[in-house]
Amino acid sequence: MFFVNAVSVLFGYVKHAQTQISKSIKNGMQTKPPISAFAGVNYWYGGFACVDSINGLQRVQKELDFLKQNGISTLRVMCSAEGDSTYPYRVYPSIQEQQGQLNHRILRGFDRFLYEVEKRNMKVVFVLCNNWEWSGGFGQYLCWSQPQIKHPPLPKTANWDWDNYCSFIGSFYSDTTATKAYWDFVSALLKHKSYINGKTYTQQSAIFAWQLANEPRPMVKEKTADFVKWVEKSAALIRKLDTLHYISIGVEGNIGLNQDMDLFKRIHNNANIDYATIHLWPKTWNWYSGNASNAFKPECIDNIKTYIDKHAQACAEIGKPLVIEEFGFERDANYAFPIESKEHLISRFSPNSKTTARDSFYALVYSEGLKHKVRGFHFWGYAGLPENVNKTKYFMLPGMAYSADPPQEEQGLYSVFTSDKTTWKVIRKYAKRMK
User: Fold this and answer.
1) How many CB atoms lie within 10 A of CB 241?
2) In 70-146, where does DSSP find H-type helix?
3) Residues 17, 153: one domain?
4) What pLDDT is recorded for position 391?
5) CATH number of the domain encompassing residue 166
6) Do 48 and 106 touch, CB atoms closer than 8 A?
7) What is the distance between the alpha carbons of residues 255 and 218, in angstroms, rounded to a whole number?
8) Are residues 388 and 297 in the same domain?
9) Tens of pLDDT along 108-137?
10) Does residue 221 share a domain with residue 241?
């Protein structure tokens, strides 16, 4: 009965659905109900902001109220961070500054965060690691496993090189010490008991899903087999510990899988994976360049539509729901100024700049997604309060509040500010349709 009651709290299903869930229980396991359509947001810093139990907590309370008022029900949140402050473009303080040593002060912030989310009948997707350096991620596990690595090829360092970075991160999947450390962290986190209600995270009704990592990739083709094994072992571990919540991988789609749609289908055609994901970053992927209005030329629009379509078809073939869990777009920059000028850069990041192109992009993604029966959306991302804009160096400075743009990106780059009224109008419109 515990599992039945927890599921009914988690998903708010009517009495008929509760009866169907009860009938599905067999040998201590259960079939989870289908994923209902939802409107979500990338709110990666939510748990970290609650570490400050006064100012931070009050900030998050206001932000959650605002999000709920605008139709948002699901939050995608980083529940991992590894390493110390020696690399300045990284989340710090982290959950795991030293391998295997969890910072319970940080985790108490996450306990408070889950309590606030549950009070508002909202849900959280917790992301358990990162392919990228801005939270430590796979690279930090490798540095712990191989202490001879003194200067990893991280962005914005003298050793930065894309090919070397790919080889470096790709080696994570075959490093048995690094993968074991990741699995040890996952086990410890899922077994962590909230200081507020005494329940482990496997029992928390505010959690919607666990995600293996943010944008995991094989990185190099020769690591594909190791990557697949890591996905299978990680999902199996989480399912063994937790039969209540959903599990996803967190991939961007075939663009992060060496353009291999068969690999996309293969890793999601797994009994322990409950839904598939894709991300959409048209500028990062060079589908357009220059002015944001260039994104609405036929070729770029076709790329966006085709990307959604082919992944929706792949998910239909394997019988898995699809979620578009990252899609982001810059503001309307002023290209009347030289690209590197202060005036141009401010126009890219300032809340005072318009969002005409972004609003159109969001509407396109939502409408195409709904056309293909996409089950959920997480736009990137809510800037929160205060609205971060670093008008001198643009990147996050020590002491600045966390915002939508992580430490390695310019503050305001992909942020949806509270004051972006036209963008919120688009979000509310499609959130209402999903209800």
Assistant:
1) 18
2) 104-119, 137-145
3) no
4) 64
5) 3.20.20.80
6) yes
7) 11
8) yes
9) 999 999 999 999 999 999 999 999 999 999
10) yes
Pair of tokens at residue 291: 């002015």
List 246's β-bridge partners, or say none: 209
Q: Does residue 42 sit in the same domain as residue 189? A: yes
Q: What is the pTM of this model?
A: 0.91
User: Could you tell me the residue range of the domain that residue 7 belongs to?
Assistant: 1-33
Other beta carbons within 10 Å of 242: 19
Backbone angles phi, psi at 16, to 5 degrees: -60, -45
Q: pLDDT tens digit string along 140-176?
A: 999 999 999 999 999 999 989 999 999 999 999 999 9
Instruction: Retrieve residue 151's tokens.
Output: 């200067």
On whether the CB atoms of residues 139 and 154 are closer than 8 A, the answer is yes
* Cis status, amide bond into 406, omega within 30 of 0: no
| Lookup: tokens for 79 | 């529940």
**Bridge partners of residue 75, in order along the sequence:** 41, 124
- The reply to whether 227 and 237 lie within a common domain is yes
The 10 Å Cβ neighbour count of residue 68 is 14
Q: State whether 167 and 300 are in the same domain.
A: yes
Distance CA 62, CA 382 (A): 13
Classify 158 as helix, strand or coil. coil
DSSP letter at 90 equals S
Place of tokens 């959280």: 124
In the chain, what is the straight-line distance between the N-terminal and C-terminal CA atoms, in Å?
A: 29
pLDDT tens-digit series, residues 245-291:
999 999 999 999 999 999 999 999 999 999 999 999 999 999 999 88
Q: Which amino acid is at 244?
A: L
Contact between 312 and 322 (Cβ < 8 Å) = yes
CA max distance for the chain: 67
DSSP code at position 202: G
How many separate domains does the chain show? 2
17 lies in the same domain as 41:
no
CA atoms within 13 A on the CB side of 134: 16
Three-state secondary structure call for residue 377: strand
* C-alpha–C-alpha distance, residues 319 and 323, integer Å: 13
Establish how many alpha carbons lie within 13 A of residue 410's alpha carbon, considering only the half-sphere containing its beta carbon. 15
Same domain? For 63 and 202 the reply is yes
> Tokens 């009224």, residue?
421
Classify residue 415 by burial, with Cβ atoms within 10 Å: 0-12, 13-18, 19+: buried
